Fold:
Amino acid sequence: MYLSSIDLSLILEKLILIVVVVSASLVVAMYTTFAERKVAAILQDRRGPNRAGPFGLLQPLADGLKLFFKEEIIPNLSSKFLFVLGPALAMLTACMTSAVIPWGDHIDFFGRNVSLQIADVNIGILYVFGVVSLGVYGIMIGGWASNNKFSLMGGLRAASQIISYELAMGISMIALLMITGTLSLKEMVVQQQHGFWNIVYQPLGFLIFLICAFAECNRTPFDLPEAENELIGGYHTEYSSMKLGFYLFSEYINMFISSVVMSTLYFGGYDIPFFDESVLSPNIAAILGVAALMTKALLFIFFFMWVRWTIPRFRYDQLMHLGWRILIPLALFNMLASGAAVLYFN
Amino acid sequence: MSTLTNRAKAVDRSPMSFMEKMYLPAIAKGMMITFSHIFKKKPTINYPEKQRPFSPVFRGLQILNRDEEGRENCTACGLCAVACPAEAITMEGAERLPGEEHLYREEKYAAKYEINMLRCIFCGLCEEACPKDAIYLSETFAPADYQRKQFVYNKQELLIPHPKENPEAYQQALGNRANKATTN
Structure:
């Protein structure tokens, strides 16, 4: 009886955490679409959406509502099951990644120690990589099932692009893992709280990781899978209504999650810079930590947008050249150099 | 060799240096340019709340004028209709009856006066043709409606508000152009 009651509260605690994290990432993604339009406008000396609600804050709701009310078209010659599966898979994988991210330290809830991480698995970063590489299936299936050349081309491009850049990303990660000596994201953050942030040890690794994150999120300058002026809409050419919304939305969730992952890996996660959290009570420290992580993530999201409105798209051969002939050798060099440094200093 | 304007630039086809090949400095430079645009003044005017000031010669929708006592100026002479290159104006005259002196300034008036705003090209020739200062182009613009026939404006829609009964609306409808027209 005693055991089961503990399990129940643990399940309840995790369930609440999952609901909060998933809905929070959905809300952040929703407002990222708004922020994207606003940032685009500001960088181009325009005003951006400002009609729906005060400062246009209700714009994402209006956009979502519009997508729901649009006509739902499924092409006659598409394979219907896969056509529906594509966006669902994209959305699912986008939401799944947030499970292993430590959003903050633990909070003290009536004497109960509640960790602000859904699952502290000891292979956390591998899980992130696994789920992210599953994400490409959503795009590939969507491109294939549409029965449209442009969609197929977009899907193909997405697949080869993500595979190419995942390599460099993984190798740049290995260098980081050699330094931290752990795969658990929580432990990495704790290490960074006590020492320097990982960006200090791994500037080149971070740069490679950042570039690859852009490519993984299909963001400009690597948005070839949906290059409008070459492929109409790429893999989502045939999609309409909320299925299109899911694709677009999952892209924004991916952007948010990769921002959070980058902050966690290289910028100390929920660590507040130049400040010792242990002097505060755990609850306040946890809340401030979540705020710190969110601030870092939002800065990254702004950076994503800022780059989008600065750098034009790569040509496809340039993309492959950058991925295979520049980033992978650089990442390999970085890995070897870090390995040598670890050997030398230990 | 001296060039004509001193603005000619020689094309540099030398191979890229290592710094140029890295792209990153160039990207950083570009990013700073876009970042600087955050602080630029935006030329957009928030239209319905704020309106761009018109030039003094702006020609908007026509308005039929009244004199200070609120009597209609128009005598239905038809000069505006003749002058109109788009043939947008039609009218019918009528004789003023005894007891209607407070309504019409002269003994003939327009019983019916219509302007088709879809035909009108807002050239202002009606205003120039009018000997009675009865019609002029206001600063109102961008009319919107659901039906084409609604764009044929009748006399009630064209007439300026009564200066005695509704002085504020009269002043507003008068705008800047009317003052200019009366001083000429």
